[in-house]
Amino acid sequence: MTAIVSVGGLRKRYGDIEAVAGVTFDVKQGEIFALLGPNGAGKTTTVEILEGLRQADEGTATVAGVDVRKDPSGVKERIGVQLQSSTFPENFLAKEIVELFALFYKRKVDAMALLRAVGLEDRAKQKSEKLSGGQRQRLSIAVAMVNEPQVLFLDEPTTGLDPQARRNLWDLIRAIRRRGTTVFLTTHYLDEAEVLCDRVAIMDAGKIIALDSPRSLIASLLARGFSKPVAQQQANLEDVFLDLTGHELRED
Amino acid sequence: MGQVLGYTRMLIRAYMRDWVALFFGFFFPLIFMSLFGVLNFGSFGHVSLGVADEAGNADSAQLVAAFSKIETLQVHKGSRGDELAAMDKGDRDIVLVIPSDFRIAPVQPGQTAPTMTMYQSSARAEQSAVGASIVQQFIDQLSFAVTRTAPVVTVKREEVAGRNLKYVDFLTPGIVGMTIMQLGIASVMFTFVVDRQRGVIRRIMATPISRRAYMAAHVLERLILAVLQVGVLIAVAVLLFKVQIVGSMAVLLLLTVLGSALFLCLGFATSAFVTTEQQAPAVMQLVTLPQMFLSGVFFSRDVVPSFLKPISDYLPLTFLNDALRQVATAGASLVDIRGDLVGLVLWAAVTFVLAFRFFRLET
Lengths: 252, 363
Known about the structure:
With 252 residues, chain A is an alpha/beta fold.
């Protein structure tokens, strides 16, 4: 498969700290790819360089065939983004937020269809700041889809959501991928990466230290002789929680 | 262009849903006007002038008779002591003492001109300030007429001086100026600082919209809102408070747009140094409060203490208020207010350069 995101020798320094210290990887067209790592590993900086929001000090990055350094606004035309800790302007209804962002791409969209796709049709006339955390994440995904992007960047999309809302969002992300959109996400939830992603890159201290499918990464760890001290349980506490409270989405 | 106009329209629609902003933008100035206007805080039916004629000659009688003809002045005659006592009781706004050597004639070489003493009541600062300026103007004209160094009284100035200026007529342009200032600065300080801090702008900048288009829509939105708000304010003033707007509405519109542009630039320039929502109100007060009191919003700038005068003279709101007031109450033309226009344009230019240099959409 062809690479839709291609990164080579990327570096970004803030003062004394090298946030991104020489990163090279490819994301294949149509896959769900995750960048994993502890807080401060350099995930967000890497993603923001790919989104055309920051300039790298060194290295190359091509997204959807466009050189990010040379044409950041060309990249912005072709991608959808959901930023970590950003909010929408106040006093706009959910439907208007979708229309507003379509206007930023000089596009006309069927806002209701996009809201329907993320299950927010009945919230169309609600102010975006009145939505729950999970609803807001889904709205931001609807907004990220207004320009029919080739790559969707999601920065920690499930942080702060309850288990039901997380699962709902996973289903949404899988549905987006089925429509042919490549999904690039960052997370520090490893279970999320394991069930959702085709391939993951693990980042620490500005460097990529592993890159493969979750299954292969686990297999290679086991091959090195790793074993957990406790016997594997057939269920965990989250399974108990979901069994008791159901999979149905809650609105807070 | 379509994008800018579309965005502007959406911003205005969102603004109209913001009750807090609507309250401060539309109702707050009206409350001010009601408080000062309806309660007749600065009741302005007339200026009470006490005259102590210590000359008692034909020239002084002529002067007093001339004062009596000015509609705004209510002239009372009496001794210096009686008139000053009346002022203490609040019955006189100004007491004018005509010295015994007074006469209407050129001063001979080697002689000093007779000195008239004018007492102004600080309790009724507004009336005494207006009255004093009328008296001063009248005496200036009289001496011009006598010494022939300048043309005799012009008809127009007589009309202005003779018009019965109500306090609310005087107040309305001040409130309009204050509203333009508050709106310009607050709409930048609060929305931009908050949007910057909450990542709203960052999210928008992840789309292909240009910074120029983004800024253009926000500035255009605020200019349109300023015109709407000034329109509502003037309509209420005219319909409810029977305010007379003597001058041209087109000139008032021009001043509204120019003033808004200036205070938006000032807002952008100052909010460049404000990083959090919590700092915004304090910085806003720092910029607007001095101008509320030193730029002649509620009272004539004649009551500003003399050591603050040099500051007061050059504040941006001073130029705006002076221009608005001259147009609204005296029917001044663009040529008449050219000094104020120069001041406004200079301030707008300086603040624009500062805003351009220091204001950033993202931190």
